[in-house]
Amino acid sequence: MTSVSIREVAPRDGLQNEEPIPTDAKVALIDALSETGVRRIEAVSFVHPKAIPQMADADEVWSRARKHPEIRYSALIPNTRGAQRALAAGFREIEVVVSASDTHNRRNLNRSTGESLDDIASLVPLIHEAGATVEVIVATSFGCPFEGDIDPDRVAGIVSRVRADGADRIAFGDTTGMATPRRVRDLLSAVRPDLLHFHNTRGTGLANILTALELGVTEFDASVGGIGGCPYAPGASGNVATEEVVHMLHDMGIDTGIDLDRLIEVAGEAEKLLGRTLPSGVLRAGPRTRLV
Amino acid sequence: MTSVSIREVAPRDGLQNEEPIPTDAKVALIDALSETGVRRIEAVSFVHPKAIPQMADADEVWSRARKHPEIRYSALIPNTRGAQRALAAGFREIEVVVSASDTHNRRNLNRSTGESLDDIASLVPLIHEAGATVEVIVATSFGCPFEGDIDPDRVAGIVSRVRADGADRIAFGDTTGMATPRRVRDLLSAVRPDLLHFHNTRGTGLANILTALELGVTEFDASVGGIGGCPYAPGASGNVATEEVVHMLHDMGIDTGIDLDRLIEVAGEAEKLLGRTLPSGVLRAGPRTRLV
């Protein structure tokens, strides 16, 4: 393996799990990330502002962000209304979520996994007709906080269903940080996604990525600075920090297109913006090549 | 691989890198760890109190700690005087350090690596005559903050020398957290230690251990709660947290003899004792098997 594709998710998944910040700051974060060499950015989600106030200004953020022609920007949507907003805003990569755990899907989306799959089946043609692609993110793929490990065959069944319904890409989400190297092997031996989204909740973030690399996965989500951990649980971390992922990959001789030094600068700016210590060792210590 | 041997280093390596705590608290930490099922504990170091005030009460700590016959306790020593104190205190496992980097050895020990190797050669018979064993910890094995990566052949040469001089065991120390999966493979393809000591400074702690497991290493140091990070650099972490290591290993079906729930309780007690948030995700979030 000589290269890996990183999707930077701090502007959407990261900020959605932090205290709200001003619109200007969101635009500045997207613009700064666009200058790091990263080739994919999850920019915003089009959700109801009462459900997720952090994304209430998604239209304005996206209209003001500088779009680089070589970067693929994506938006998350929960339903038809969200899809219409994302398409009207010009997005050509749309993400939608379904949970592998029925209990989690009901708690999160107030319907069964099967009902959500039906919703996705009706969303896909709408999005395709507008010339955009659909990525289905299968949440709780690596474990559910209510049900524990989900049978890999059940995850595989969901993947088969959404592929049959026209999904262009599949991502597996490590929703509450239950992924481990063992679980990654168990799941990926049954079914392969296009992209993996790991958390570092229990310290295994990079070990999970290492395991997935060995199994041939080449696309990963990551969040600069590890943005997205719950600020009310000090030390708890959500998304893997992009600079920690890139640092390990570059050390292995795997290209990401990203300028690590620039990325670390953006992480530092994000830390000041959020006003809390971000859970990123590489932000704190710098890369191993930075000698005294 | 069905089992891994963990050496718990919080009482020595951990506390040596924290603000000093009372003697009672040190004794309580050792006693609590002895009840977790861990089979090896690095208990104290016998160093000059002016150099390392955190270990000034090593004799008292050790005399008051409850010794479990099934646990191997070890002590670190810097010189003949330290060795005499450790042996007089009853230790039968002695550790001594030399740095693979000449620059680091001079800064740390005020002599060349070669001079330190001569010192070790004269210490080994002294320790053996008292019926104890000697472990040589090769510091900066995974990288030196002054010199960068040390040639694996140089590390191999140091290992050959100390083995010829009678060292019973070899450990490789990741002194400033420069180990990565790539460096672990590079170094271990040249020379094998008995035990590995990783830090989690740049997020790769568990990824390094995973890599070493794949290469057949079965002995690792770890520090409960990740104790040992510099308290002046928030978020920076030193030693890998024992509960994070044990959590990943048990999930892989690898036995450690350790009761993870009890270990997490000890980490929580240690956090209160030190009065700072410890860098351990498993302490914060609990094991992945703890469902809602």
UniProtKB/TrEMBL annotation, chains A, B:
Residues 1-20 are annotated as: Disordered. SUPFAM superfamilies: Aldolase. InterPro entries: Aldolase_TIM, HMGL, PYR_CT. Coiled coil: none annotated. One of its GO terms (molecular function) is hydroxymethylglutaryl-CoA lyase activity. Residues 4-264 form the Pyruvate carboxyltransferase domain. Keywords: Lyase, Metal-binding. It comes from the Bacteria. GO terms for biological process: ketone body biosynthetic process; L-leucine catabolic process. Belongs to the HMG-CoA lyase family. NCBIfam families: PRK05692.1 (NF004283). This is Hydroxymethylglutaryl-CoA lyase.
